[in-house]
């Protein structure tokens, strides 16, 4: 196990009927004027919008709002929001939504007090050293953005879906009320499950030795996510399963799951970002296509870890280490099929002929990978496996 410092500054308020606390939390911290950021219609349909606005008014919080955040958030809306923040002297950003809204909020929070273009942070010309505070209300569990310092945004004119990370981007507060996720479309629950599991696997597969406790932790998150995803597909308003699912998604990428490790692999995420940048598919759907293909391509680099995964998650005990490793990868792929997530480029209507363009896009961030360093030709071979 490696040395580590672990600090997570985000306060979490979790449970039923907690969203109405947003205004009092802002008031307590001396914040008087905010930008409320959201996606489209869901927060109006499930009552979250009214609850948040009422809480603002009850606590004398002045607010302006901006909707329209897309599932793959775009730079143009971030830039629009930054101008609003500057014009209205905004003191905090309030994302009300899922990971895309949170990711946008983080980019806005950084850009609002930076003199140059916010994209400078994404292309490495600048580092995020400070940002406006973020107080969020989570309505979709998947990305873990509610309790980490990561943000992913797409620059459409260059087809770049790139990420930033920094201590200043951790939300000051996230409120998670699982009841507001009862009405989520089935596809969003499925995508959230895949995203959660892949976050865990990116950290699980970085070849760090002597991290048994972290492997057990990771395996527990995966098993629990799978169990409650299957419940939620049939019973979307099962509170206990929603709560378990939501907290799994947070724990998967709030830093706790990475302690003692080497930082994770993240190759599947980089390759998937090419898929969603060029074809605008849901991130979770892209990951269920890419991750099993990546795993099949690299598993020989650490057969023991993949064999352990097969045993601990799918109870596969027969065969050699290599046979178990391959069986575990296939079992994960089969589970993705079972819950209705795509496992091939063809299922996502991405043609085989697109592989070169996808590899070119992903390779802009290369080489990358902890399990195996990947270059453009490696990406091509992984995408060929994903095409089947």
Write up this protein.
The protein is of the alpha/beta class and 388 residues long. The protein has helices at 22-28, 42-45, 48-58, 75-88, 99-111, 119-122, 186-204, 212-234, 239-252, 267-279, 283-298, 303-314, 321-339, 355-363, 376-387, and strands at 11-14, 33-38, 62-66, 92-97, 135-138, 150-155, 160-165, 173-176. The strands form two sheets. It has a six-stranded parallel beta sheet with strand order 1-8-5-4-2-3, with helices on both faces. Strands 6-7 form a two-stranded antiparallel sheet. A hairpin with a 4-residue loop joins strand 6 and strand 7 (160-165). The longest helix has 23 residues, at 212-234. It is globular. The protein starts with 10 loop residues before the first strand and ends with a helix.
Please outline what is shown here.
The protein is built from 15 helices and 8 strands. The protein has 388 residues and is an alpha/beta fold.
List the helices and strands and how they pair.
Elements: E1 11-14, H1 22-28, E2 33-38, H2 42-45, H3 48-58, E3 62-66, H4 75-88, E4 92-97, H5 99-111, H6 119-122, E5 135-138, E6 150-155, E7 160-165, E8 173-176, H7 186-204, H8 212-234, H9 239-252, H10 267-279, H11 283-298, H12 303-314, H13 321-339, H14 355-363, H15 376-387
Parallel strand pairs: 1-8, 2-3, 2-4, 4-5, 5-8
Antiparallel strand pairs: 6-7
Helix pairs in contact: 4-5, 7-8, 7-9, 7-11, 8-9, 10-11, 10-14, 11-13, 11-15, 12-13, 14-15
């Amino acid at each position: 196990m490696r040395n580590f410092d672990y600090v997570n500054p985000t306060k979490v308020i979790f449970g039923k009927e907690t969203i109405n606390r947003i205004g009092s939390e802002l008031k307590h911290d001396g914040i008087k004027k905010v930008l409320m950021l959201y996606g489209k219609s869901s927060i109006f349909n499930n009552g979250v919008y009214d609850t948040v606005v009422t809480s603002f008014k009850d606590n004398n919080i002045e607010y302006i709002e901006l909707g329209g955040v897309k599932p793959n958030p775009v730079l143009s809306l971030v830039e629009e929001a930054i101008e609003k923040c500057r014009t209205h002297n905004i003191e905090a950003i309030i994302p009300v939504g899922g990971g895309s809204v949170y990711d946008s909020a983080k980019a806005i929070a950084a850009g609002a007090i930076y003199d140059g273009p916010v994209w400078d942070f994404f292309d490495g010309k600048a580092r995020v050293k400070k940002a406006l505070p973020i107080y969020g209300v989570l309505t979709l569990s998947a990305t873990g953005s509610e309790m980490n310092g990561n943000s992913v945004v797409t620059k459409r004119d260059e087809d770049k879906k790139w990420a930033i990370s920094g201590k200043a981007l951790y939300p000051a507060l996230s409120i998670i009320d699982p009841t507001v996720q009862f009405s989520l479309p089935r596809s969003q629950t499925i995508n959230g499950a895949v995203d959660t599991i892949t976050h865990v696997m990116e950290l699980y597969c970085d070849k760090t030795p002597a991290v048994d406790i972290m492997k057990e932790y990771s395996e527990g998150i995966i098993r629990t996510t799978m169990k409650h995803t299957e419940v939620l597909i049939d019973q979307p308003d099962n509170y206990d399963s929603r709560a378990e699912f939501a907290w799994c998604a947070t724990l998967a990428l709030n830093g706790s799951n990475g302690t003692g490790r080497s930082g994770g692999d993240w190759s599947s995420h980089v390759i998937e970002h090419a898929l969603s940048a060029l074809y605008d598919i849901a991130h979770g759907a892209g990951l269920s296509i890419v991750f099993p293909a990546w795993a099949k391509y690299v598993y020989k680099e650490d057969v023991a870890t993949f064999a352990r995964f097969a045993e601990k998650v799918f109870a596969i005990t027969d065969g050699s280490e290599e046979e178990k490793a391959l069986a575990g990868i296939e079992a994960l792929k089969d589970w993705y099929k079972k819950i209705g997530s795509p496992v091939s480029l063809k299922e996502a209507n991405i043609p085989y002929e697109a592989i070169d363009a996808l590899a070119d896009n992903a390779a802009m961030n290369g080489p990358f990978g902890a399990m195996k360093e990947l270059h453009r030709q490696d990406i091509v071979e992984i995408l060929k496996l994903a095409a089947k």
